[in-house]
Amino acid sequence: MKDFKDKVLFITGAAHGFGQVIAEGAADRGMKIVMVDIDEPALKETYQTVLDKGAEALMITADVTKEDSVDDAVDQAMAKFGRIDLLINNAGIALPGRIWELPTRDWEWIMHINLMSQVYAMKRIIPIMIQQKTHADILNVASIAGLVDTPGMPSYHASKFASVGMTEATAYDLQRAGIDIDMHVMCPGFVQTDLYHTEQHRPAQYTDATDPYYQSEAFLKGQQFAKYVITNGKPIDTIADTVFKALEDNRFYVLTHPEFNPLIQDRVKRIVEDGAPDVHVMDGLM
Ligand SMILES: NC(=O)c1ccc[n+]([C@@H]2O[C@H](COP(=O)([O-])OP(=O)(O)OC[C@H]3O[C@@H](n4cnc5c(N)ncnc54)[C@H](O)[C@@H]3O)[C@@H](O)[C@H]2O)c1
């Protein structure tokens, strides 16, 4: 069984949802925790909870869409704990909106948070892990939306497919280089979190209140869709145990919703059998 005690976790998006429960689960396992999030008031609450559980922790308010902010957070983590054993790239947003409607700035925002924040952290933390010369793990939180496609949110799919592909390719590179870091990619289905409150975490550089899109019916419908699927998702209570069990078992793909497995199989079959996306496959599901 893997011993997490006294190991250092660096986790993004720790204020709400998955990040919050994983940080709390890490505290239960005796880990030291570096918690990064853009939402300072909510982060303070999670920070207090892990302190109350007896964990040593560091909270850092940062916008992880910016490379220099991630660099600074890593520097603070190293100054406090001197090592990082587990990186969990979890911060993310979901943006519904069809490609001919969603503003380009929203594409830039989602790619920077869901993909580039993971790149920035891995670029800085992998060399640190190599230097430590001890085993380390990296878990990127992608989504089932990184394995199967659905209508209505192409930007989310693009960012999550990219996260899955980057994690797989990095696993090859680490293996080939003989580096003792295990990669994992988490691909959950819908879980009840604050994910449909994405607008509350919109950084200033991606804001343009004058754009008529944000008053449009398409935008409001997209918001309602996101709220519907997330609030009807699974309860979050098993997520931390799922993550730590997957790390213990050294599972690469961390799946949480087996009911979506037929969709994964259907997609692969479509590819090798020269098929095409068929929206009717989604009937009753989305
Ligand atoms: N909830 C689901 O159904 C579901 C399903 C599949 C994958 N996911 C993924 O799980 C991850 C966590 O999402 P969640 O459901 O817990 O949502 P959430 O909104 O509850 O949590 C996301 C966290 O990321 C933080 N964040 C957002 N933008 C940030 C930024 N620029 N810099 C730093 N922190 C930022 C938020 O403040 C929040 O604390 C995301 O990557 C999401 O895509 C969620």
Taking all Cα atoms into account, the compactness measure Rg is 19 Å
Looking across the biggest beta sheet, what order are the strands in?
3-2-1-4-5-6-7
Percent range for helical residues?
40-55%
Under the CATH scheme, which architecture would be assigned? Answer: 3-Layer(aba) Sandwich
Tell me the number of structural domains.
Answer: 1
Largest sheet at a glance?
Answer: 7 strands, parallel
Give a structural overview:
It contains eight helices and seven strands, in the order E-H-E-H-E-H-E-H-E-H-E-H-H-E-H. The chain is α/β, with parallel strands linked by helices and 286 residues long. The protein has one domain: NAD(P)-binding Rossmann-like Domain (Rossmann fold, 3-Layer(aba) Sandwich), CATH 3.40.50.720. The longest helix is centred in the middle third of the chain and has 29 residues, at 104-132. The protein is globular and about 50 Å long. Nicotinamide-adenine-dinucleotide (NAD) binds next to helix 1.
